[in-house]
Design brief:
about 70 residues, about 70% helix
């Protein structure tokens, strides 16, 4: 199935549905780039950036993390 066929199938299924939760989820996915970051997330990120800039961050590569699991 090529991309045009996939699009048409999705459009067809969406036009048939009355599931509001499904439509809300599709709408959310379509607007992910417009989502606002909550203030408390921003504060956490700012704190982590300050810690990193001050040299207080500890970084592990994936192999180290994997070993600990």
């Amino acid at each position: 199935m090529n991309i045009v066929e996939k699009k048409l199938e999705i459009i067809s299924e969406i036009s048939k549905t009355d599931d509001e939760k499904l439509l809300d989820e599709i709408d959310r996915l379509l607007h992910l780039d417009e989502a606002e970051i909550p203030e408390w997330h921003k504060k956490i990120l700012e704190e982590r950036l300050k810690d990193d800039e001050a040299g207080n961050s500890v970084w592990l590569d994936w192999e180290e993390v994997e070993k600990e699991l």
